[in-house]
Structure to design on (250 residues):
């Protein structure tokens, strides 16, 4: 995600993320309305890395459940507050990504954390703008530049949508050196070319999946927590740096 260019917003966001503590972000009334509950964000731990700071993060949310009522002999809906985590976020402090933050989680969790951080920043300083926004990778403008990146030349997988063809609406292609295939030339470069939604490239002995909406992942990560996670983050930094170099992070 891209960090706001507003200096005050940036400073408050950095303060929240790099101070291990609990931040209440939402208050609600229980069903009997006689008691209020608070949902909180918990920054448990902050570690320095070679390229910035890594945070271990938890947050509370409300989830609906059903319980069996012995007295009423039926299912009763209930809502409970639970803490989710650990999740990891990383503030990049090394150029050229010193305006970016990575959230190592699925899309829904990433968006939820961004929303919580926005609530907290706005509470603190009354800012009107969000501290974070999702990065976009405009394949429709930059796919040739991205494919020319020396480390990204082996395209392993691709999803193309909105193809101008009476018989093919979208295509999902997998293989080796796909950008050399006739199908790639037809669906990506030819007159009927569509829009790339996902591009998977082979990078440092792994296949990395890069989405148009800024998400990136690999199935070959060696760690999801602990000190080894820093190495995984560094590899994502290297991918982001290469995309930034060709103007493909907006």
């Amino acid at each position: 995600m891209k960090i706001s260019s507003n200096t005050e917003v940036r400073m408050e966001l950095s303060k929240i993320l790099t101070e291990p503590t609990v931040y209440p972000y939402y208050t609600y009334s229980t069903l009997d309305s006689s008691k209020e509950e608070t949902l909180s964000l918990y920054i448990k731990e902050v570690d320095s890395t070679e390229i910035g700071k890594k945070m271990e993060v938890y947050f509370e949310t409300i989830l609906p459940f059903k319980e069996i009522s012995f007295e009423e002999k039926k299912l009763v809906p209930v809502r409970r507050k639970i803490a989710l985590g650990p999740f990891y976020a990383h503030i990049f402090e090394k150029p050229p990504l010193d305006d970016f933050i990575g959230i190592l989680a699925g899309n829904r969790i990433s968006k939820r954390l961004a929303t919580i951080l926005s609530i907290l920043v706005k509470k603190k300083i009354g800012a009107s703008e969000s501290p974070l926004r999702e990065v976009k990778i405009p394949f429709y403008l930059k796919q040739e530049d991205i494919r020319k990146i020396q480390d990204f030349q082996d395209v392993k997988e691709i999803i193309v949508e909105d193809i101008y063809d009476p018989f093919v609406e979208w295509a999902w292609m997998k293989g080796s050196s796909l950008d050399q295939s006739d199908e790639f030339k037809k669906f990506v470069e030819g007159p009927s070319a569509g829009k790339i939604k996902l591009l998977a490239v082979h990078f440092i002995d792994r296949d990395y999946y890069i989405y148009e909406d800024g998400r990136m992942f690999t199935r070959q990560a060696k760690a999801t927590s602990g000190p080894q996670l820093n190495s995984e983050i560094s590899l994502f930094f290297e991918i982001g740096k290469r995309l930034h170099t060709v103007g493909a992070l907006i």
